[in-house]
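2024-03-11 09:14:02 INFO worker-7 job=invfold-0412 stage=load source=structure_tokens
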């Protein structure tokens, strides 16, 4: 009996994080509100058609030394829920970006808006970085003001499909992983929020100049091809062609939108245990142009 109580005492000394590998339940699952669609129901090839293969319910794209590949939604959207289940390439993927994002770059070149989910490739034995980002009427000349928040995931994204989503409403942008909100970007002013319709994109490409530890490690094509798989596409909301009275979708049970207390609790857990970078906390940044960081 003494040994039994000693064993219980030892358990109490183990850090609680050992038992906190997964976030608490968000209590609400926005992805269940939208039906899945096949790739061709909502998307088309944008570039690298020879490096893209679609079947009835999934899409595979890949990068090698000759090309990457990308796709784009048929319609632009003013607001909505946009998600896909994605499985990433294992092993050495330094310099490689796998992305799922919203943008209007083709409609507004040099002055576009963008909302990103980007997986930054890595070296052997190190986890992927999931980077979320928001650009507001940025430019392509190096003056883009990024609003990056970066995370290490609580699972291995190369082992199975997981659902990644962006919820865009007139009030906020919410990034979700398996229905767990990981970031909320509120609309604090028109100057810091995307207001023009955007298309949904996905791509895989070589970003060796910055993707992995600020460009320290480059894409190594001895390990090609680098493959990304997408399925369970979901997109619903107000397209650019919808009537003005179209009601934006919500990430919560509230008709007015927003997150529940339980969703906030799950998001705080992720940001406490798995966030590795927040642009608002970067003292090297010039925050005069990111007033949303001011307190």
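2024-03-11 09:14:09 INFO worker-7 stage=emit residues=295
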């Amino acid at each position: 009996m003494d040994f039994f109580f000693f064993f219980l005492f030892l358990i109490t000394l183990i850090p609680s994080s050992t038992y906190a590998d997964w976030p608490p339940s968000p209590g609400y699952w926005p992805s269940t509100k939208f039906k899945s669609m096949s790739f061709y129901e909502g998307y088309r090839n944008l570039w690298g058609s020879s490096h893209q293969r679609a079947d009835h319910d999934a899409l595979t794209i890949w990068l090698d030394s000759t090309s990457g590949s990308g796709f784009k939604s048929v319609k632009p959207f003013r607001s909505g829920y946009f998600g896909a289940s994605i499985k990433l390439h294992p092993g050495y993927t330094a310099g490689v970006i796998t992305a799922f994002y919203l943008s209007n770059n083709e409609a507004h070149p040099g002055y576009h808006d963008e909302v990103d989910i980007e997986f930054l490739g890595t070296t052997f034995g190190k986890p992927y970085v999931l980077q979320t980002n928001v650009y507001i009427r940025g430019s392509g000349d190096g003056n883009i003001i990024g609003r990056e928040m970066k995370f290490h995931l609580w699972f291995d994204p190369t082992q199975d499909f997981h659902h990644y989503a962006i919820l865009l409403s007139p009030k906020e942008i919410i990034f979700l992983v398996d229905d767990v909100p990981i970031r909320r970007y509120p609309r604090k002013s028109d100057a810091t929020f995307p207001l023009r319709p955007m298309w949904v994109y996905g791509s895989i490409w070589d970003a060796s100049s910055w993707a992995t530890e600020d460009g320290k490690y480059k894409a190594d094509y001895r390990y090609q091809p680098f493959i990304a798989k997408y399925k369970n596409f979901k997109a619903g909301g107000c397209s650019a062609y919808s009537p003005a009275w179209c009601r934006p979708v919500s990430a919560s049970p509230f008709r007015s939108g927003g997150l529940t207390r339980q969703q906030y609790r799950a998001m705080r857990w992720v940001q406490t245990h798995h966030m590795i970078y927040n642009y608002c906390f970067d003292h090297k940044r010039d925050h005069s142009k990111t007033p949303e960081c001011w307190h």
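2024-03-11 09:14:09 INFO worker-7 stage=report msg="The first strand starts at residue 43 and ends at 47."
2024-03-11 09:14:10 INFO worker-7 job finished
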